[in-house]
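Collaborator request log, item 7. Partner lab (contact: R.S.) asked for a structural prediction of Universal stress protein to inform their binding assays.
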Amino acid sequence: MLYKKILIAVDGSEGSFVALHNGIEFARNTGAELTLLYVTNEVTLPLYGGVYPVGMANTTVEVKEAAITEQSHGEEILNKAQRRVDPTIKTTSAILHGDPSATICSYADTHNIDLIVIGNRGHSGFKKLFLGSVSQKVVSDAHQPVLVAK
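Returned to partner:
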């Protein structure tokens, strides 16, 4: 299959930069366009009773500050990723907000992506069982082929 549009999910982890390298090679060999996608974590206030889990923002101001920080972090990661892409490869980038796996799959569907490339953080054992993994969810939910880079 000839891939014309490749989505690479980046989050700043070593695995996502391995995925970036693989996606760049696919694009170089096929002439495909790249989309670099960073999905910010959602920061919200609790729904009930003003009880905040440890580490959660407890005021609207803190939520806004966390969102700004996350946006800035995403821009920094995308800039770092963009610098690694050969300038002859047509590349776009996007920062979206939401659940990472659902957002990646939705973006791929609405933008006619042919291949999703995503890194694997290598969780194992209980951590993998209880936390799951974005790459696993993308593999199971995507309508496109998914390359999980290790």
